[in-house]
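[job 4417] fold queue: 2 targets
>>> target A
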Amino acid sequence: MKRILVTGGAGYIGSHTVLQLVDQGYDVVVVDSLIRGYRDAVDPKLLREVDLHDGLALDAIFGEKPVDAVIHFAAFISVGESMQKPEIYFNNNTNGSVSLFTAMHRAGVKHVVFSSTAAIFGTPGVSPIAETVPQAPINPYGESKLMTEHVLDWFDKIYSLRAIALRYFNASGADPKGRVGERHDPETHLIPLLLRAAQTGTPVTLFGEDYPTPDGTCIRDYVHVTDLAQAHILAVENLMNGGPSNRFNVGTGKGFSIRQVMDSVERVTGRKVPYTVGPRREGDPPELVADSSKLKSTLGWKPEFVELDSIVQTAWNWANRK
C-alpha cells in the first residue's frame, strides 16, 4: 500500500483529498499545524500536529514508515491579507515549503504534488489561461506560490525531486457525501459568503462593480473541490509511475461573474441574497479562467461538476448540515 503524506490535510482542499485517498485505498498521514486547519476535518489517527518549519518533527514523521510521495497544500491563501502582511506569506508559504522539501530530500522522498494557484498569472490579459502564459503575480500570495515553483525547479535539477504543480482556480463546493466542506476563519470565499447572506439576511459586500467585464464584476473559474482532489491523486500517481515534473492549470474552462454566482445561489436556495457594493480589493484581477486541456490530455482528468448550480448545491447542502 502506497503511503502519501499530505500537508495542510486539515484544511479545505486538503481534507477532501485525504478522504479520496483513503477511499481509494492509500495509507495517508496528515501534517497540519492547525493554525488555520480544523482538527475535526481529518481522522485523528492520521493527524500529526506539526509546523513545516520544524525540521526535526518532519524527520520523525518521515521516519515512521517509508513515504512514497507528498501532496503539499499547507499555505496561507488570502489575497487581501497578503497585501497587508506580505511577510507572513513568504515565511509560511515559501520558507515552509523549503523546509518540507529539504526534509523530503533527507528522507529520500522523490515525488511531490504542489498546490499552486492561478494567482501566479496576475492580470494575464488573455482568457482562457494556458500554462504558457507568462507569470506575473500582482499580490504576495501569488508571488509566494511562484517562488515555491522556482524552488521546486531547482530541487528537481539538483536533487531529482520530481514535482507537479497544480495551478488551480477558484476551489468551491463540498464533499457530495457531506463529510467535509468549506470553512475559513474569517471566511473570504464568495460562495459560502453568498450562502451565509441568504441564510441570515445580513448583506454581503461585493468588492467592485466597475471591472472591464460584461456586468462589471470579477469573473472566475469555479472548480469543484472533489474534482480538484482527484487532480491531485492523478498527479501523484503519475509521478509514482515515473512521470516527469510538470505544471498544470486546473479549472472547468467556464468563467462566471460574481453576479452570475449570486444568481446561482438564489436559484439553488430559493432565497434572495442581500448585498452592498464596496470598492475593489487591491490585488484582484478582472478575469481568471483556466485552459485545462493539458491536464485532461496528459493525466486524463475529467471534472464531474461542470455546472455552477451543481457546485453551489453541494455547498448549500454543507451549509445546512445538522
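>>> target B
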Amino acid sequence: MPAGCIVETVQRIHPIEKPLTFPTLMASPPNHRKLSLFDSTAIITGSMIGSGIFIVSAEISRQVHYPGMLLLAWAVTAVITILGALSYGELAAAMPKAGGQYIYLKEAFGPLYGFLYGWTLFSVIQTGTIAAVGVAFAKFTGVFFPEIGPERLVFAMGNFAINTQQLLAVGVIVLLTLYNFREVKSGAFLQNIFTVSKVAALILLVVLGFYFGMKGLGDWSNFSPAFPDVMTLATIGVFGAAMTGSLFSADAWNNITYTAGEVDRPQRNLPLSLFLGTSIVLVLYFLANMAYIYVLPMEKIQTADNDRVGTLLFETILGENGKYFMAAMIMVSTFGCLNGIIFTAGRVYYAMARDGYFFPSAAKLNKNHVPANSLAIQCLWACLLCFSGTYGDLLNYIMFAVMLFYVLTIAGLFVLRKKRPEMERPYKAFGYPVLPAIYILLAALVALDMLIYQTSASLYGLVIILLGIPVYAFLQNKQQKNGRLS
C-alpha cells in the first residue's frame, strides 16, 4: 500500500482533530492502590532482568569486535533507557491509570495510535517475550533434568512437534498466570522475592568475576585495544544495529506504568521507581560486562557455547560446578522476569477492553479486583507462541516497532504540553525540553539504523503494526453500529 494511501486511510478511520475527553481514559481498578515504591521498583527491576544479560553480549561482541565498543553499547543503552524513564515519569504521574503507554499514546495522538500499540503488545511484544522467557526457564531447568529438552518429543505430526521443554514453559506460564489471579499485593510479594534474589545473583556474578579475576584469572589487557583506530560511518552503523540485543535486555522498564492504577501515591512513586529501577539494572549490566571482559578475552566471549557468556564465566572461575550454579541463577532470573511481565501487561488489555478495542470479557475484574480474564487471554496466546517455535523471530521483528513506539510516546510529552496545558503534572520531565528531545533523537537514530542494517526484520515489525489498522477500523465500525442500535 503506498504511503499516501496509508495516511489517507488513517485519517478516514480516525480524524486527528476530534478531541478526546480525559475522563474516558480513567480505566483502572478503583480504590486498590496497594503497590509501594519498593514494589514498583521491584516490578521494573524484576521485569528487566531476564536471561539477556547472560547471553546477548556474545552476539554484540561478534558485531563490534572491540571490548570498548561492547561496553559503549551497554553505556549508550543505559543513557537512552534512563532518559526515556525520566521522560516517562511525567506521563505516568499525570495519568496514573491502568494501561500505561496505551493511555499516553491515546491521549496524545488519538485512539488509533493507542490501539496500534496495544495490538502490537498483545500480538508479539509481551506475549512473545513471555513465551521466550518461559522457554529460557525450561531450557536451563534441563541442565538439572535431562528429560527436559527440545529433542525430548511427546507428540509429533508432520513438521509439528511438541517437546518437554515447551510443555514446561507452558506449565510455568499457566502457573504464574493463575497465581496472579490473586490480589495485586500477592503478585507483588512474589515479584519482590525473586527480584531481590536475582539482583543478589547478578551482584554475585560481578563480585566473583572481579574477585577471581584479581586472583589470577583476570587480565586487564583484555580491554586493549578498546576501540578501532578509525571510526567510520559503517562502523557506527554496525554499532547501532548491535545495540538491538542490549536494548532488548534493558526493555520492560516501562511495565510498571501498565499497573499505574494500583500504585500507592503514584504521582511520587511512579517517576521515582522508573528512575531507581532502570538505574539499578543498567549499572549492574555494565559491571557484569566489565567482569566478562576482565576474565574472558573477546575471542572467548564471541565463541561462547550457545552464546552463554555468563555460563562460560562461571565455568572459568568455578569449574564444572559453575555450569550448574549459573543455570540455577538463570532459572531464578527468568522465573522472576516471567512473573513481572505476566503480572503487568494484562492491565493494558483491560484498559483497551474498557474502550471497546479488545475482547469484552477482558474488561471484567475478578473478586480480587484483578483483570483475570485479560491475564487468561494473554496466557493462551503466549502458550500458543511457545508451540509455534517462531517467537524468537517475532521478537527480532518487533524491536524496530518497540523503538518507534518509544519515540512516539516521548514525542507525546511535547504534544500534551501544548494540547493539554491544564493537565495536572505532579512531576515534570527532568531537563525538559532538552533531555526528552535528546532521547527522541537517539532512539530515532537507533530505529533508523535497525531499518538500514536489519531491513527485513524491521519491515516485518512495521507490517505487524500496520495490520492493526484494518482491525481497528472493524472494531470502530462495530462500536458505531452498536451505538446506533442502542
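[job 4417] complete. Note on B: The CA atoms of residues 153 and 163 lie 4 Å apart.
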